[in-house]
Structures are given as structure tokens and as C-alpha cells.
Amino acid sequence: MKRSLKRSLLLRAGATGAMTTVTIAALLAPAQAGDVAKGRKIAAVKCQMCHGLDGQAKLPEAPHLSGQTEQYILTQMKAFRDKTRKNDMMSLVVPTLSDDDVADVAAYYSAIEVKIVKVPGE
Question: In this structure, are residues 80 and 91 in contact, taking their beta carbons and an 8 Å threshold?
């Protein structure tokens, strides 16, 4: 995206509130191209107990990760790291992951294709 267009979108978003600006900025940020194969290996050891290797949560308090964007997962992991988002389990796991590990896990879970096969009421 051209720099002037990106700046224009951010300025317009700023007029509607800081949260919108943060959201649009996160969406426009370049993807951190992690390694999907490495991410799968890390997820098999560090993540699957709660989030499932397929990204479908195994615990009711854990979110599904498959179907999320890479940037969203990276943003949430950063929030756990800087303690602006808190969770007892994640506070134990996140410090054991390097920046590359986080990028790889985000790439892996975001690469899982999610298909909707039935919508209630249709």
C-alpha cells in the first residue's frame, strides 16, 4: 500500500478514535513471515494442550487460533509479553518463546484453513 494512502487512512481513522487507529495500523502492518513448519513443531510442544494442534481450543477458556490472522496472533502474543493482556497459562508459556518462535507459531496457526460447513438456521 502506498505510504500516502496508508497515512491518509490512519489520519481518517484517528478522527474516529484512538482504538480505530490502532486497529487499522495493526491491519496495515507488514506480516511477520514466520516459518509454518517450525511453527507446527513449536505448537506441538507448547500450544496444543490448550489450543489444539489444529487450532481448535481443547479448553473452554482457551481461544481457537485457526482462522485468526497472523498479525492478530502476533499482536496478542505481544500483549501477553508486555503484560497488557493477562492470562495465567500464557504468562508461563510466552517467556519461553523467542521472537522467531512467536512469528513461526503465528504463521502456523494462521495458515490453517477453516471451512464453515453449516450455519445454524440456514
Answer: yes
The grid coordinates of residue 90 equal 500464557
pTM metric for this prediction: 0.71
Round to whole Å and give the CA distance between 43 and 54. 9
Q: Does residue 121 lie within any of the structural domains?
A: no
CA atoms of 53 and 47, how far apart (whole Å) = 7
Range of the domain at 72: 36-111
pLDDT one-digit tens code per residue, 79-110: 999 999 999 999 999 999 999 999 999 999 99
Q: Phi first, then psi: give them for residue 96, nearest 5 degrees.
A: -85, -5
Count CB neighbours of 68 within 10 A: 19
22-54 pLDDT, tens digit each: 444 444 445 558 999 999 999 999 999 999 999
